[in-house]
Amino acid sequence: MLDKKMLPDTLPGLRDRIDEIDQKIQQLINERALCAQKVADVKVAEQGEEGVVFYRPEREAQVLRRVMERNEGPLGNEEMAKVFRQIMSSCLALEKPMRIAFLGPEGTFTQQAAHKHFGKSIVSAPMAAIDEVFREVESGAANYGVVPVENSTEGVVNHTLDSFRSSHLKICGEVEERIHHHLLISPNINAEDVTHIYSHQQALAQCRAWLDRYWPHVERVSVSSNAEAARLVSEAGRNGKAVAAIAGEIACELYGLQKESSNIEDHPENTTRFLIIGNQDVPASGSDKTSLLISAKNEPGALYRLLEAFERHRVDMTRLETRPSLISKWGYIFYIDCVGHYSDASCKAVISELRERASEVKVLGSYPVAVL
User: Fold this and answer.
1) Which of 29, 202, 300, 360 has a CA positioned 20 to 30 A from the CA of residue 3?
2) Can you tell me the distance from the alpha carbon of 137 to that of 145, in angstroms, rounded to the nearest whole number?
3) Where, by residue number, does the polypeptide cross the bilayer (predicted)?
4) What CATH number is attached to the domain comprising 89?
5) Is the residue at 1 inside a domain?
6) Global confidence as pTM
7) What tens digit of pLDDT does each residue of 47-76 get?
8) Would you put residue 270 in left (φ > 0), alpha (ψ -120 to 50) or beta?
9) Is residue 262 part of a domain?
């Protein structure tokens, strides 16, 4: 355990000690980077240039969990894990920079989630729609994709669920992002002169009570994304027009805006869950989820018989969503998340029974539970 009593008592002494520590940290980070480069050389030698997989989601989840388990403070567990997340991202980029497709444009919460999961040492590929993210990864143009799947206040993102029906892609990971909305303005305008507030319709809805209280007479304008709202405000500010945007931290930085008010969302716990999609199966990490797509037979008690398998094998089901099948009238498809990896004995037993009782069972992927 670290002890403050072991540190110098004077400001010059503390600064000298910080300089010594920084030098050691820098040396160790570079040593880790050299190890990462060596890992790449060994992988290529053993597996060949074409077949090698540089990014291992289960391995990174295990490393981040250990970082949090052994952390002694005073930095919090999540803050410490974020530091290591970026170190790992930079080291992985030495092996092979990854191109990550996400629902764009630049400056969205989906890009923020991509940075949280992969770090910032990636090649960003913003896409105009969720199905374009899927196509970019399916074609091999991107290594992975990031798409929203559900929000704690707005519910499920149907377009993402529906995209899995015809796609061979696997879910390789998940990331949860606390959604903090900020009221942004250009640095050269006065807040009291603002005439319009731009944002995506969902963000306007998530901040409705705050806006009604503090900005009741300012017109609200719905645009295609929060990032687009920030871009419009930045452009308007350069022309001397007093408008504002509701957007996140990354849009604020990207478009050079300033925060007039922070964390203005009506529900502080507002969180969006994002999925990481890719082309490969992910081995067990020790703390995993499995996602399934199930088409039930059209007969009495069909859903009960599906769910009964989870109860009997003691597999915890964490989510159940229903979508029209689009094949038969009043037919439905179920999306289910459960705790465990598909290679676990209990999950295997459940999936085996589901295949006997359902018209179709598709394992969308097993992946590490979100660490950050």
Assistant:
1) 29
2) 6
3) none
4) 1.20.59.10
5) no
6) 0.90
7) 877 767 788 999 999 999 999 999 998 999
8) beta
9) no
